[in-house]
Amino acid sequence: MKRTAVAASAAVLLLPLSACGGDAEAGDGSTVTVTVGYQSKTINTVTAGTLLRSLGYFEKQLNSLDDGRTYKVVWQDYATGAPITAQMTAGKIDIGSMGDFPLLINAARGRQLDRPTRLVSVTGYNLRGGLNTIVTAPDSELTSLEELKGRKVSTSVGSAADGTLVRALRRAGIDPNDGVEKLNQQPAVGASALAAGSADALSQFVAWPGLLAYQGKAKALYDGAQLNLPTFHGVTAREDFAEDRPAVLDAFLKAQAQATDYLNDRPVDAAEKVAEATGLPAEVVYLYNGAQGISTFDPAVKPQLVAALKKDVSILKAAKLTGDVDVDAFVDDQYVKKALGASYGKRLASAPPAAASEAWPKGAKQTKSFASPAQLLRYVAAHSNSVRAAYVPDATTGTLWFADKAVWVADGDKLLPFVAPATAQAYVDRHDGARVISYADALERVA
Prior knowledge:
- It comes from Streptomyces nigra.
- It holds the Pfam family NMT1.
- Keywords: Signal.
- This is ABC transporter substrate-binding protein.
- By secondary structure, this protein is of the alpha/beta class.
- Helix content is about 40%, strand content about 20%.
- It is built from 18 helices and 19 strands.
- The radius of gyration is 22 Å and the shape is globular.
- Residues about 1-20 have low confidence and may be disordered.
C-alpha cells in the first residue's frame, strides 16, 4: 500500500474515539494514527507544534519510513500543558509539548496512573529564565515586586510562570502563599482580569507578557531572567508509544530538528508562519523566536536544563501539585540522540549567542542587527516611518524587549535599556549621574 501521512484537526473538548492516540487499524492493520498535543500560542514549543505542523515535516518523515503502513497525524491544540497530560495519561495523545513545570506534572501523573511518560527533547529555552515575565497594567503605579505585598496577582498555578512568581516573591521577602492573593487563572482570563483591574499583576509565560506589552495593555514589572535560573519547554512521549513505535518517534524528532533549523535559518519567515497560524502579531512572535529572541531553539537535552528541572520539583511539592519526581528516570535522551546522530554532540555543546539590538524594517524578510542600543536608536530615529519593530536587550539580563516599551537610562553618553523599572532604578542607584529617561528622550539624544 502506498504510504501517506495526513494532517488532521480535532476538536479539543469533543474527541472522537477515532482521533485517539495509538493505532487506528484498518482492516489489514496497515493504518497508524499518531496524535500530537501542542500549544499553538505557547510559541516556545513551535518546533514541535505550530511551525512543525505548518511545514509538514513530520508527515514527510513518516512518508519516508517505507514500512507498508499509512500514517495519519492528528494535531490537537491546547492553551496549557495540563490537558495534554490528561489526554496522554488516558492513552489518547502520543506526543506532547509543554513547559518545564507542566513537564514535571506530566512525569508525576504518568507514574501515578501507570502511564509513564518520558522527556525526549527540548524545544525552546532561556538559560536565565527570561521566558516568563510579571506585568502590570499600563497605568499602574507599581514599580517593584516588594509593592505586590497584599495585592492580587493572576497566574496559572502549576505553570512555569507560577514558578517564576513564587521564586521572585520569595527573593523579595514576600510569602507567596500569604503575602499576595494568588488568582489561579488561564492566561486569557488573567489578561482580562488585569485589564478590568481585578488583578494588580499578571505572571505568565510566552507569549502573553510580550503580547500585552505590544498591545499597550501591560508593562513589565519583573523580568524572569533576574532569577538567573533556566526555563525551557520540551517534548514528552508516552513510554509505551516510544517502545512500540520507535520509528515514529524517530521521525518526529528528525522533523523537529528540521523545523528547528528552519526557525534558526529563516527567523522572519518562521515568525510570520507562526503568526499566520496563531493570530499573534508577528512582531511578538519574533520577540521570542527571532534571531536575537528571548528563546533559543535546540532539541538537545542540555545538562543545565535537567539540573533546573530538578530544582523545580520543590516548588511543585510545596504547592502540593506533585510528590517527589524522579527526574533522572523521566529524562530519556536516547531517542533524540539517535534521531540527530553525529550532530547531537555539537548541538549539546552549543551556547546561545549574546543578544543584540535589532530592527525589523517594514516589508523586509531580514532584520538589521546593531552593536549597541544607541546605534539602533539612531537607525529608528532616521527611519521612523519604515520600522516595523525594534528590539533591545536588557542591559543587566540580556532579555530582549521592545525598544519603545523598555525603561531607558542615560548614563553620560551611554543609553541603556531595561525590561523592568526596578532593574533600571538599581542601575541608577549604583551610578552617579545616571537617570531614567523616556523613550522619546532617548531618541532625541541620538537624532
